[in-house]
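Follow-up to my post from last week.
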Amino acid sequence: MIRHWLVVGATGGIGTAVARELAKRGCPLTLIDRPDSEHTLAENARDLEVRYQAEVSVAMLDVLEYDAHARVLDDAVTAGESFGVVLAHGVMWPQDELQRDSQTLRRHHEINATAPMAFLERAAERMETAGRGQIVALGSPAGDRGRRSNYLYGADKAALHCQLEGMRHRFAGTGITVTTIKPGPTRTPMTAGMDKLPLLAEPADQARRIVDGIEKRKSVVYTPPVWWPIMHAIRHLPRFIYDRLDL
Amino acid sequence: MNDRWLRREFEGWGRYRRAVSLAAAPVRADELPGLLQEASAGSTIAFGAGRSYGDSALNDGRRTLETAALDRARSFDRERGIFACEAGISLAQILDVIVPDGWFLPVTPGTRFPTIGGCLAADVHGKNHHVAGSLARHVRSFDLLLADGATVTCSRDENPDLFAATAGGIGLTGIITRVELQLQPIENTFMFARHIRTGSLAETMEMLAIHDEEWPYTVAWLDSTAGGGALGRGEVILGRHAALADLPVSKRARRLRRPEPAKFAMPVTPPVSLVTPATIRAFNEIYYRRGGPEPDRAGLESAYRYFYPLDAAAGWNRCYGPRGFVQYQFVVPEDAAEATVREMLRACQSEGHPSALTVLKRFGDGEGWLSFPAAGWTLALDIPVRPGLLPLLDRFDRQVADSGGRVYLAKDARLAAETFREMYPDYPRWLAVKRRVDPECRFSSDQSRRLRIDDDVRAG
Ligand SMILES: Cc1cc2nc3c(=O)[nH]c(=O)nc-3n(C[C@H](O)[C@H](O)[C@H](O)COP(=O)(O)OP(=O)(O)OC[C@H]3O[C@@H](n4cnc5c(N)ncnc54)[C@H](O)[C@@H]3O)c2cc1C
Ligand SMILES: NC(=O)c1ccc[n+]([C@@H]2O[C@H](COP(=O)([O-])OP(=O)(O)OC[C@H]3O[C@@H](n4cnc5c(N)ncnc54)[C@H](OP(=O)(O)O)[C@@H]3O)[C@@H](O)[C@H]2O)c1
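User reply:
Got it. Predicted complex:
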């Protein structure tokens, strides 16, 4: 497995847990999140040092600052060094607001899709130079099939899935691998207040499965794994049945 | 979009008490004073991992501060076994960090999923209470956010009254934000355990009493369905941390193992309880016989299976169906113990409220003012909620109070206010501290209102 990992969204529920799991397995880390989270980043870095005596640095980036992507990468990674990226940032704003307001929709899509896609292209360039690297991004089962209650979030994720699929194709047979993570509902700030969801997975459990998948350089990881058969069935339901379901 | 307070449903572990409150889940401890400010004069309670069974962490129609994201390690002295962390970290995560360096929790409840803050607020006990006391004894210090927004450090020397009022104070003195623990050293994550099958209550209690002398961990599981002369039969389980010399060579290489995740999960609540008198009978019968023909067996066991057998199945509390269950745990002094336990086991059987899981243990001396453990015997009964249960438990309360005993607040969902006062003789001392640090009763819960603690505070 790649050793040095950059985690974007490193103060989020899943990002925090993935960083912990990577640190536990002995990886040096660069924790990246928005400037607003600077203080939390520092506390998280200290947590990893105390827990696992990990080597940790931090960097501030709002993914919407496209021009900063290259600088953040160059600061974190020395030229020619092989490294991995886990994109674990994201937002999920209420669908009704996204339907109603175009600017909100645009911003949402940029945070979840356009900006991370650009960031991954900058990361991929550097991995190509090194000849090795690992790209991991948090997609979602919501991107597997549009659903009335959250298809706009789903569309962001579908775009990301498609980029990852394409990158996997592009780098097939090279030392660069690409992993799409599709977590089921997880207990994080993103799902706060949504207690009507089925049993929420704990971030620590999710992170363990995610990093297992990363170690095995899997292409797609559904976590918990039951989401694979569930989404497989949902994707293949005939439309006349799907349209009648209250999902 | 940026409102930090979201409406959310909460439930106690028994799933019998529920509440809907405005909840905030801060990711940093320094957000807490601001959130508290926003809650202004209203009532707020901390919610850790929701492993208390009743309504200790519930605050219906009011506010709840979820602490589970405040889970960072702050320092770890690997030589001396001193570990400091934020209060929302789970015991499972603490173990994950400390075990590889040869340390273990000094005291642990029967599940590793609670938060350390929740455990201190309940001043939890483990199977080693008779030698190690409750958790508070191993807490070097903690930080407490008070109603006025100030954070104070509490230890035996610094703010000792707040220390004694908060350990076992069930969330009502403030929010614990940092805990510093003294850990216990281990050589490996195996236990040397001995299981002795017993034929009667007298024998169970005698075995426990005898073996308390040499074994640091002792507890008995009781077959709640056996009657007549076999009433109170069960299995006495004795344990100690294994020494390196106890391990076969094959186990020595990976002797300090981190806890493993749950193997099963109960993802949904079945429409009816799977725990019925018939399944309880079957389970207890099978469990009683699980050791096979051997009535006394000893050997090595994984520490995690030993301490946390129920953790193997996530969400097992859902098996009790929509109505949930109540855990009734009490302690009574030595002289009243055998008769009380006997009568309760009998009453559960004859009134059709068998306990699914029944545990008996002898305690050593107690700690904090509202802490549960006190010298004597403690019995815990897990009983499905069905019509007629509550009057039965009220009768049990009477008997417990009359014998100078008490019920455990972290398990309680239904105790009456007057009985609570009889059971906790140090309550007036606790109340004096509560009035001083929180005169407007900004920290309160469904439980504190049911026990009319809030009325007492305001009357002061
Ligand atoms: C299977 C199982 C086995 C158990 N075995 C034992 C046992 O052997 N011995 C034992 O003693 N207990 C046992 N318990 C009970 C459990 O240890 C306690 O109820 C503990 O308080 C749960 O912690 P929590 O983090 O889930 O807290 P919650 O249930 O969320 O809250 C419990 C109380 O702590 C308060 N609280 C939580 N966090 C804070 C904080 N940061 N600051 C201030 N107050 C706070 C809450 O307000 C509430 O009053 C068991 C529970 C289960 C489910
Ligand atoms: N939770 C689930 O159930 C679930 C399910 C499927 C997929 N996912 C996906 O998993 C990923 C992580 O989700 P989560 O649940 O961990 O969410 P989270 O706790 O809300 O964390 C999201 C993180 O993204 C950061 N972020 C937001 N906007 C950003 C921006 N413009 N630039 C940089 N960072 C930004 C946030 O930083 P701030 O704190 O500074 O805002 C936060 O650290 C997301 O992609 C999500 O879509 C989650």
